[in-house]
Amino acid sequence: MTNQNAQFAGSIPTIYDRYLGPILFQPYAEDLASRLDVTANNSVLELACGTGILTRVLRDRLPASTRLVATDLNEPMMQNATSKFEKGEAVEWRQADACSLPFDDDSFDAVICQFGIMFVPDKPVCAREAHRVLKRGGVFLFNVWDALEHNDLGRIAHETISGFFDRDPPTFYQVPFGYHDQDEIRRVLEEAGFRDVRFEFVAKVGIAGRAEDVAIGLVQGNPVGVAISERDPSLLPVITNAVADALKKHFGETVRAPMRAIVIKANA
Fold this sequence. Notes:
23% strand, 40% helix, 7-stranded mixed beta sheet, alpha/beta, Rossmann fold
């Protein structure tokens, strides 16, 4: 993934995990893991594990003897993920590109991914790779964000950030909230060989006690902060404060943000 919008490095993984993890990703990790039906002798491959939020939930929920392999192309994110686990916990960590998986055909009973498919540059290739490594009848389970209009945190951040630039505004938020067309997703999966493709909208409410903390995550906990700094480093704290003010104006002191994602499940 050479796309700059997928480069989570430097201080981003720590900020992402601390400020965005609890409000955005933990609720959907619990939801996604609850949908995975595997047995003790099965094997599970996680794509784009990031800072290990879903990985932690999976390992806690899955039978102890279920093989769990967590992968990500981004090494700094994986370093953060491994810190969530004690030595000896049964997780295999592999740096891997979702478009070129280093696993044999028919290796896994399930492939799962939390909010990572949107960042994959070649989604048809990724779907074919997921299908290739799945055993016959295995499941591909993942989620994506619905449009910005259904996700106030991303919308407010995107609109506030864009307002500081007369031209060439950072486009990061168009990526995670830009892959939700069900017809397109179904086409990609079916052309890769998947069948029985199912979609479900899942609404949650993200809760945080301080708008300032959420703003730090939304501005500095993903590549949009790098894009801002490349244009004008002095704007980074200014925009962070502006996003915090916009969040307070919209939600009040305590953030309770409606969120909506789409869960996709398909059989190999």
